[in-house]
Amino acid sequence: MQAGAVDDSTHLRLGIxxxxxxxxxxxxxxxxxxxxxxxxxxxxxxxxxxxxxxxxAAGIRxxxxxxxYGRAEEFVAxxxxxxxxxxxxxxxxxxxxxxxxxxxxxxxxxxxxxxSAGAFAEQSAQxxxxxxxxxxxxxxxxATLETGVLDDVVVHRAMAALRDRGVRVGxxxxxxxxxDAVRRALEVLVDGEPLFSSVQSTWNLLEPSVGPALAEAxxxxxxxxxxxxxxxxxxxxxxxxxxxxVRRAEALAERLGVPIDRLAVAAVLAQPWAxxxxxxxxxxxxxxxxxxxxxxxxxxxxxxEIAGVSGTAQEYWGARSRRRWA
Length: 326
Description:
TIM Barrel; two-stranded antiparallel sheet; 8-stranded parallel beta barrel; alpha/beta; 12 strands
């Protein structure tokens, strides 16, 4: 059920992620409807600033960007400079992918992955040049066992040096083996001390398999951030794909009398290990729906019910990998 007013604490747990608004193409559903055709650099800068203004006015104080999110870091840096009252905003960014889409929706390749020590040196320098001491968290972007970054002692030493400058370092994860990556990250030590103190993973009603590993991370004192709560738009109004899990979530949202995206965000907020939940909103109205999620009481058993008809993690990530950039 939905109460009459927004939970005053929700804004403290929400962050705003710029993956879908700071570059012209992404895999989120409904971009033609949400962004329209005007996606030049100035257009998306203006949209990003309006979103950040709305988030700050609502009390949100965490912004998530990445080197591969088009001009996200540049947009945020400009906004921070233009808004002197934003000294309390913390920025988290990520290294490990390069944006190569040349601001084209029809690019053959939009980003490339590189988890080498050289990539860290290059990209962390670029990030620090733009964000300086406003950078509070720096993640390996989509760390997996296969890339070797979780066993690369040279990278670990370099990230430890950044940590020693006061930046929290961590990993973001994607793919059906997220849990393995999270647990391996918890084991990484530098000079006998845990290196990673933050983890950002995909968890949603359609793909909750990483949940137990995130609970272990939180128990170990690691800050847990959840991304893709609305499954790249599949759990947003008008973004459903007719799959069994989406249909079940849509039916439940209708019974509760709330938009499906609000239910999806509320389900993440209900997880005791979820320290922060990212909203992928691209306009203030989307953001308002995320903020209202704090008033939604998620019935017991919902996660298990929806996940039970959603297919395996492998199927979820296989479908995600086939989504068209638009």
